[in-house]
Design a protein that fits this description.
- There is one protein chain.
- The chain is of the alpha/beta class.
- It contains 14 helices and 16 strands.
- Strands 3, 5, 6, 7, 8, 15 and 16 form a seven-stranded mixed sheet that branches. A six-stranded parallel sheet has the order 11-10-9-12-13-14, sandwiched between helices. The protein has a three-stranded antiparallel sheet with strand order 2-1-4, with no helix packed on it.
- Helix 5 links the parallel strand 9 and strand 10.
- It is globular and about 85 Å long.
- The relative contact order is 0.14.
Length: 404
């Protein structure tokens, strides 16, 4: 019995003396630069941070990002001024362009090396992003990465409002606010694809010289645009495209001709400062008249709206949006439309790019380029020390130039 009791001990001793197999070292985690929203608030909540590179899952592609688009919605997200804001920290950005680096299982209509543009539910402002293939579109020949990052959101919204909802036809009239911004440029270009369109556009005084040829009638912000339009067209307009909301919604509706359509695609009147204003939110909501279906029936008018993010990510209309994008790409390839780039910024300068949009100073699209060199830090310090980079915003411009 004693010998049997000693056997396990001897066996264990022999096992302990054997050399153990060396486990393979784990692969180092690859990291990428990204623009991260660390919390809701002012510009300082957006920071460039290193994050692990994503991998393409089933039905996805991995894109090496070459450019990302900055939209007014990004300012609203930063402030937490949207329905169901995301949990922070989160990588920002809703659209990008780049080159496909890897394919997930089941992806057959795209290949590695394709130049593409994509719509994302956040995460676009990073050096790499994985995107469902159904939200990815091939870039046409001759399109730059910057143009591709400026095209998806602005032109999809503009095209759907004008043609899918608005049924724009020759001889009609359109009013669009913030005509100097990204969506405004898209609308003005698309209107020129139809004969004899009268386009009324509002914009700040400083943009007048640059965009005067984009519209039929340019009206300065701060002027009573309802009165100015009535002087030219006493009956009003056929289509109102409103990105402001608030009292401008009432004014837009009042300008509609019989069979006219009012379409809301933004609520920029709620953005009046660097951080969220509950007063502005409440004011914008309170100012909008509640129009009943009976009133619309009686007056032969129509009201609609579009939030592209909801259409794609909540309501699953990717096939519909792809059919619209196909039409937009054809217009680009035929030379009828071309995104207008206001400026490009390095990731490290994203706060300055956001500030320019917040001040409503951009003419066209603002682009973030991950390969662009940031501004020298000493230059920034000099600007801050001298006060030249401080915000000097005209209060009368609050709520204007949205979606730019």
């Amino acid at each position: 019995m004693a010998e049997e009791a000693n056997v396990p001990a001897a066996t264990n001793s022999a096992t302990d003396g054997e050399p153990k197999a060396t486990e393979p070292a784990p692969e180092p985690v690859k990291e990428m630069r990204s623009c991260v929203l660390t919390g809701f608030g002012g510009l300082k909540t957006v920071k460039v941070q290193k994050k692990p590179e994503p991998k393409a899952g089933e039905g996805e592609v991995l894109i090496a990002v070459r450019a990302g688009g900055l939209n007014f919605m990004d300012l609203m997200v930063r402030q937490g001024a949207i329905d169901n804001p995301p949990k922070t920290p989160i990588i920002m950005g809703f659209e990008c362009s780049g080159e496909i680096e890897a394919l997930g299982e089941g992806v057959t209509d795209l290949k590695v090396g394709d130049h593409v543009m994509a719509l994302t539910e956040f995460h676009s402002w990073a050096e790499k992003v994985n995107v469902p293939a159904k939200h990815v579109y091939k870039m046409p020949a001759g399109m730059t990465f910057h143009e591709a990052a400026a095209l998806p959101l602005n032109y999809l919204v503009a095209y759907i409002m004008l043609f899918e909802i608005g049924n724009l036809q020759a001889g009609k009239s359109v009013l669009v606010h913030s005509v100097g911004g990204g969506v405004g440029h898209a609308i003005s270009q698309l209107c020129k694809t139809v004969d004899n369109i009268t386009l009324f556009g509002t914009a700040s005084k400083g943009k007048a010289e640059s965009i005067k040829d984009n519209v039929t009638h340019l009206i300065e912000h701060g002027v009573d645009y309802v009165q100015e339009i009535r002087k030219i067209s006493p009956e009003g307009v056929d289509l109102v495209l409103d990105c402001l909301c608030g009292d401008d919604a009432n004014k837009g509706y009042s300008l509609l001709k019989p069979m006219g359509k009012y379409i809301l695609y933004g609520t920029s009147n709620i953005i009046t400062g660097e951080t969220k204003s509950l007063f502005s939110l409440a004011k914008s909501w309170w100012q909008v008249d509640k129009v009943s279906p009976i009133k619309l029936y009686d007056e032969n008018r129509f009201i609609g709206g579009i939030i592209l993010r909801h259409l794609l990510f909540k309501q699953g209309q990717h096939d519909y949006l792809r059919s619209v994008m196909d039409k937009i790409v054809k217009l680009y390839s035929s030379g009828k439309i071309r995104p207008h780039i206001d400026s490009t910024w390095a990731y490290e300068d994203v706060q300055e790019g956001m500030q320019k949009m917040h001040d409503r100073k951009n003419i066209g699209k603002i682009i973030l380029d991950p390969a662009q060199e940031p501004k020298p830090k000493d230059t920034k310090k000099v600007e801050n020390a001298s006060g030249e980079n401080e915000e000097k915003k005209d209060p009368s411009a609050d709520g204007q130039e949205a979606q730019e």
